[in-house]
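Re: beginner question about structure tokens

> Can someone show what the tokenized structure looks like for a real chain? I only ever see the sequence side.

Sure, here's an example I had lying around. Input first:
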Amino acid sequence: MEPFACDHKVFEHDRVHLRVDHGIFELFRRNRIISSYRAPLSWLKVRAEARRNGLTRLHFGNVEELDEPIYASTTSSRHGLVTVEIQTTDEPLYRAFFTELAHLSDRPIAS
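And the corresponding structure tokens:
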């Protein structure tokens, strides 16, 4: 595997902290129980599920095939390993960060 063009990227919004460091993706979210998710960037997948009341759920998990898009919409009941609920109006901010990560890891992002 080739080294990533950028060793360190961070995205913080509300109670969510996302970072990539030396090809490892980490998610931290602050709630009653501080939890995290960590995986190689090349394994990361995020699926956005539109919900009612202006909310979107981001489901983080591992890809089955390495050429899967990092980020895509879903209506599937199959969820990831960690779920973060965000305001739907904030979704474009997250999508922009995942687009950067897709470029870093030479992977697609679904429309």
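Each token stands for a local structural state, so reading them left to right follows the chain. The chain has a mean pLDDT of 87.
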